[in-house]
Amino acid sequence: MSVAHGIRTLGVLGSGQMGTGIALVSALRAKVPVLVHDRSPEQVKKGLALVDKLLAKDVSKGRLTTEDAKDAKDRISVVDELKGLRDVDMVVEAVSESLPLKQKIFASFASELKPEAILATNTSSISITKIAASAIPTGISAASEEGQKIASRVVGLHFFNPVPVMKLVELISALQTSEETLSCARAFAVACGKEVTTSKDVPGFVSNALLMPFINEAIMHLEKGIATREDIDTTLKLGMNHPMGPLQLADFIGLDTCLAIQKTLYEGTGDSKYRPSVLLERMVDAQWYGRKNGKGFYDYD
Ligand code: CAA
């Protein structure tokens, strides 16, 4: 087994669609033991059921032996408390796209994890530099050697949904991230079977700074009645060979997540091209979040 990344055990925080996918590729491809923590036991149960389903599909398609599937599943365990992650070499945080929530979590790492652990965030748009600053405990100056050392272990490791299928990981360096942290995170993503691109720490990085205006423009086309949702999606799907139309993709990502990313882009740049459409705001007000809860631009079972 390649250990160029030096990660002997991984922690994953959050067992939604992203956290579960990250746990699966880490156990199956990088072959590392993975400890998953989520504050919701129901969410963990759902995540583990998805892991079972995806592994069983790979076995039924002849891409994986029953034994390899079992080994991968056995590498994944659940811990009830954050302190259960105290021995991991790297943690990947994959909770909701909320800065205060991420700051709270990163602030707790200093007392819960070992001091040399790499602290990766799967955020899709939030400043990695801000998240890194929140990992420094109160009382330690961010400018001190100790403060800089703590923040140097924070890195952006942005996976794409569905994680087992999408080939990319976007690697983002905070102002404070060390070269050692970056190269370890990159090697780990490669061990998970991913191609890695790098982006500066700007709102939305490369991926969402380009994707979100596209999705938002599609929503505004719908809002203005320029075309039906089906015609907008079919135009992009068949006319540009996209796997999904932009409204389907927004539902797939989650409308609440799209709105959170768009707000980060708009607030972080002040550029009106990133202003979320009123229709998207209203759909999230209505708690229509897309596929994850059954209603978005389309209805799902
Ligand atoms: N988890 C794991 N695997 C999944 C899955 C999921 N949620 N959904 C679909 N798949 C797998 C299927 O099991 C199937 O695998 P096999 O080939 O091994 O059987 C494969 O994907 C293809 O699925 P389907 O045949 O059912 O359907 P499809 O051909 O329409 O593909 C899709 C589905 C892969 C999701 C495809 O539509 C697609 O690529 N869509 C675009 C996805 C995309 O753009 N993702 C990035 C979103 S942005 C993001 O994630 C980052 C962010 O910051 C917001």
TrEMBL record:
Pfam families: 3HCDH (PF00725), 3HCDH_N (PF02737). GO terms for biological process: fatty acid metabolic process. It comes from the Eukaryota. The keyword Ribosomal protein does not apply. Residues 10-201 form the 3-hydroxyacyl-CoA dehydrogenase NAD binding domain. The record marks 158 as: Important for catalytic activity. Residues 204-300 form the 3-hydroxyacyl-CoA dehydrogenase C-terminal domain. NAD(+) binds at residues 14-19, 38, 97, 102, 124, 161, 292. Pathway: Lipid metabolism; fatty acid beta-oxidation. Keywords: NAD, Oxidoreductase. One of its GO terms (molecular function) is oxidoreductase activity, acting on the CH-OH group of donors, NAD or NADP as acceptor. Belongs to the 3-hydroxyacyl-CoA dehydrogenase family. This is 3-hydroxybutyryl-CoA dehydrogenase. The lineage of its organism: Eukaryota, Fungi, Dikarya, Basidiomycota, Agaricomycotina.
